[in-house]
Design a protein that fits this description.
Elements: E1 32-35, E2 38-41, H1 56-65, H2 89-92, E3 97-107, E4 116-126, E5 131-136, E6 147-153, E7 174-177, E8 180-187, H3 189-197, H4 212-218, H5 232-239, E9 243-252, E10 259-268, E11 273-278, E12 291-296, E13 299-302, H6 304-312, H7 316-319, E14 329-332, E15 343-346, E16 349-356, H8 358-367, H9 399-407, H10 418-423, E17 428-436, E18 446-452, E19 457-462, E20 473-479, E21 504-507, E22 510-517, H11 519-527, H12 534-549
Antiparallel strand pairs: 1-2, 3-4, 3-8, 4-5, 5-6, 7-8, 9-10, 9-16, 10-11, 11-12, 13-14, 15-16, 17-18, 17-22, 18-19, 19-20, 21-22
Length: 562
């Protein structure tokens, strides 16, 4: 509805108002706006359909209609409180948890020390969705599977499908959760106030029972010995970080290669323990771990019953150890037992003390002035050459392979002379030989004997005469051959010095007679004539010289074809 805007304003009476047929916009102007994130009302600049506004009083009435103020009632107060906003239960009870303290007993079988265990737990009840969670506090090094025993869930109460509610919980009752019975003893302050606000009267709290096994462990054992007057705590506080350092020589007689080794002996005044470390020089080739004896308290004298058991051998397992209890040791090593110039025996090994550091010398001057700590001169011993004895052959592989079993726990392949192999690569001495046999069919059978200079091995190739009915082939693969009379413990192998023309070579019970050689054999042996007997060289010169003079090419040795 709008009015005609003219100079002569008509009263708002029936018959005096009419619609403007030319008007097309009838929307109402927006009077709500946001400023800094807050909703606020503003005065509309125009009215409905862009008509001019009426007086300020009419405008104020229009604004009041849009507010939340309720109109005055005929009866009663004009003020009415607004309705309370509805909040669901999951919003009201969010993060509100009831906490109860409980325990359960666990039977222990096959144990003479305990019959049952008392294991405390914490029961959490979430008011938001009536779910429960059971947690057992973790005890360090208990050996038990602890932590969360029941994940958060609604716990069934009975077989009818009902679940536990907070009204079912109270102090001093048994809560059965999946066959396990938990006894509730106490709760926290928030739980107590909440239960009182709901009109639930809680029972009196109960003390948590004590595990009998843990209680027995806490009990101190009866002591029948008189306590010592020496204060170890005072010794640690005053002597911590103070160490006596001695320089000594150790005659290591346990090793195969006997020698004298330099060591450092540390005596810790804080707890009277001793440590021995070996002094390694640069590029000494010693063990990279210099600790000869780890830090421990050394016993000097045992009680008579321990010595008697050592002689009778009744407690070898205890005597073999380096640590003994106080009841078994009569006397321990002290600073009085270490004096420069004397030999001290530690764990059965003698150590000659020849010097000490400045702190040790001042300590003895203050506490033990009667002990002389002057250094002594050490004469350098001449190192005696020692020859390693070769262990006997064990029957597996070559003598070199057998020796590796004695040198290492995991045998390694014997090392080869790489320089010799590179220098003599493809250098072979070839000889022709015949088989010396009592069998008439084998007598005079030709063979080719090859000596490989790279690894001193011998191979034999059978080269029969044509139409003899014998197939040619390898008779002996490359191997090292022992001389007759030698053993595997003291091996003596064939060498080029033993291969003279006419000599007999015994190969595993078969005798071969050398009849000829290659020209290269004479050339090579003459180059090392100082290592070859003259008899071998003369036989080769005589045979090869006659062959060259008579021009007998048939006598030359034919290399075997592979």
């Amino acid at each position: 509805m709008s009015w005609n805007n003219n100079s002569h304003r008509l009263p708002s009476l029936p018959g005096y108002t009419f619609q403007d047929i030319t008007k097309t916009a009838f929307h109402r102007s927006q009077n709500l706006t946001f400023k800094n994130g807050f909703l606020r009302l503003r005065t509309p600049p125009v009215g409905i359909g862009q008509d001019p506004l009426l007086s300020e009083q009419v405008i104020q009435q229009e604004i009041n209609k849009q507010t939340y103020d309720t109109p005055d009632m005929t009866h009663g107060s004009s003020y009415k409180s607004p309705l309370k906003q509805f909040e669901p239960a999951y919003v009201t009870l969010d993060k509100k948890v009831l906490r109860f303290y409980a325990y359960f007993k666990e039977d222990v079988q096959f144990s003479p020390d305990e019959v049952y265990r008392v294991r405390p737990v914490i029961i959490y009840y979430y008011l938001e969705d009536d779910s429960m969670c059971i947690y057992e506090p973790i005890v360090e090094n208990s050996g038990l599977w602890q932590g969360k025993r029941l994940k958060r869930q609604r716990v069934p109460k009975n077989e009818r499908g009902e679940h536990y509610e907070y009204k079912d919980l109270n102090l001093g009752i048994d809560l059965v959760v999946y066959v396990r019975k938990y006894h509730i003893t106490n709760c926290d302050e928030f739980t107590m106030k909440f239960m009182e606000s709901e009109g639930i009267i809680l029972n009196d709290p109960e003390p948590m029972p004590v595990d009998p096994y843990i209680n027995n462990r806490k009990m101190t054992l009866p002591c029948h010995t008189t306590p010592s007057e020496f204060d170890k705590k005072h010794q640690f506080l005053t002597m911590d970080g103070k160490v006596l350092c001695f320089f000594a020589l150790w005659d290591d007689a346990d090793r195969l290669q006997k020698d004298t080794r330099s060591v450092t002996i540390h005596y810790y005044l804080a707890d009277d323990t001793v440590e021995i470390r070996e002094i390694h020089g640069p590029n000494s080739g010693r063990d990279p771990f210099p600790v000869v004896m780890r830090r421990l308290k050394l016993h000097k004298k045992l009680k008579p019953r321990m010595l008697q058991s050592r002689e009778t051998g009744k407690c070898n397992t205890e005597i073999a150890t380096t640590q003994f209890s106080k009841d078994e040791v009569e006397e321990y090593y002290s600073p009085k037992d270490f004096q420069v110039g004397h030999t001290v025996k530690l764990l059965g090994r003698p150590f000659l003390l020849y010097d000490c550091d400045d702190f040790t010398r001042k300590y003895y001057q203050t506490n033990h002035p009667d002990m002389d700590m002057k250094p002594i001169e050490i004469q350098k011993k001449v190192k005696v050459e020692w020859k390693r004895e070769v262990p006997p052959y064990n029957g597996f592989g070559s003598p070199e392979d057998s020796l590796q079993n004695c040198l290492a726990l995991i045998p390694k392949r014997p090392k080869k002379n790489v320089k010799k192999m590179l220098e003599n690569n493809n250098k072979v001495l070839c000889y022709s030989a015949t088989l010396d046999s009592q069998n008439p069919t084998d007598e005079g059978q030709p063979f080719i004997l090859s000596y490989f200079l790279s690894d001193d091995t011998i191979s034999i190739f059978e080269h029969p005469t044509p139409n003899s009915g014998i197939i040619s082939g390898m008779s002996l693969k490359k191997t090292r051959i022992l001389k007759p009379g030698s053993t595997v413990d003291n091996p003596d192998f064939y060498s080029p010095a033993d291969f003279a023309i006419g000599a007999t070579v015994d190969v595993f019970g078969r005798r071969f007679v050398l009849t000829n050689a290659d020209q290269y054999v004479l050339t090579y042996l003459e180059s090392i004539s100082s290592q070859i007997p003259s008899q071998t060289l003369d036989s080769l010169r005589q045979k090869l010289g006659e062959g060259a003079a008579n021009n007998q090419p048939g006598d030359e040795v034919e290399e075997p074809s592979e």
